[in-house]
């Protein structure tokens, strides 16, 4: 267990500027997705501040841990992480899925959370790629 904790601490010990870019990108991404989910009546957070707890406090550290892994591994591990998050959000009713939303209609209500987890697992490899591009563009000369 100590080895795992040391591994995680090493992966999240990054340049503060990189961490700031992650937080800004993921916060904007989370607010945008919550807004989009409300507009098209797919799903939404119960409270706006859940963007902070889910996207920054949960997804940013996981993204840092997955950073540097191949795309398929980030996605596969991300699927587990998002499956737990989606399950918890709907089980605790901190997320709201609109009845008869477009995903229910396309894939069936029983597949809604699975579909959400499959989609949102892409956040980890795509987020790491996007943050890496932004960070490099902003700070490449200073490193």
Description:
This protein has one domain. Helices cover 73% and strands 4% of the residues. It is built from seven helices and two strands, in the order H-H-E-H-H-E-H-H-H. The protein has a two-stranded antiparallel ribbon. Helix 2 (16-39) packs across helix 7, helix 3 runs antiparallel to helix 4 and helix 3 packs across helix 7 (123-139). The longest helix is centred in the first third of the chain and has 24 residues, at 16-39. The radius of gyration is 16 Å and the shape is globular. It starts with a helix and ends with a helix.
Keywords:
143 residues; mainly alpha; 2 strands; 7 helices; two-stranded antiparallel sheet
Compose a concise summary of this entry:
With 143 residues, the chain is mainly alpha-helical. It is built from seven helices and two strands, in the order ααβααβααα. It has one domain (15-128).
Which secondary structure elements does this structure contain, and how are they paired or packed?
Layout: H1 2-12, H2 16-39, E1 43-45, H3 50-66, H4 71-91, E2 95-97, H5 102-107, H6 112-120, H7 123-139
Antiparallel strand pairs: 1-2
Helix pairs in contact: 2-3, 2-7, 3-4, 3-7, 4-6, 4-7
Span from first to last CA?
33 Å
Number of helical elements: 7
Shape: globular
Please summarize the sheet with the most strands.
Answer: 2 strands, antiparallel
Spatial extent as radius of gyration: 16 Å
Contiguous low-pLDDT stretches (5 residues minimum) are none
Helical amount = over 70%
Query: How many distinct domains?
Result: 1
Strand content: under 5%
- Please count the beta strands (DSSP E, at least 2 residues each): 2
Give the integer mean of the pLDDT values: 93
* SSE order: HHEHHEHHH
- Structural class by SSE content: mainly alpha
Largest beta sheet: strand ordering: 1-2
């Amino acid at each position: 267990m100590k080895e795992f904790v040391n591994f995680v601490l090493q992966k999240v010990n990054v340049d503060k500027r990189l961490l700031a870019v992650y937080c800004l990108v993921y916060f904007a991404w989370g607010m945008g997705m919550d807004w989009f989910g409300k507009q098209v009546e797919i799903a939404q957070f119960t409270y706006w501040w859940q963007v902070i707890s889910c996207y920054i406090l949960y997804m940013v550290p996981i993204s840092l841990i997955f950073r540097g892994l191949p795309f398929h591994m980030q996605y596969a591990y991300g699927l587990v992480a998002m499956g737990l998050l989606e399950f918890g959000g709907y089980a605790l009713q901190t997320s709201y899925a609109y009845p008869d939303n477009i995903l229910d209609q396309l894939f069936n209500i029983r597949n809604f959370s699975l579909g959400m987890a499959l989609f949102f697992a892409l956040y980890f490899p795509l987020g790491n790629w996007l943050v890496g591009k932004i960070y490099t563009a902003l700070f490449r000369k200073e490193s």
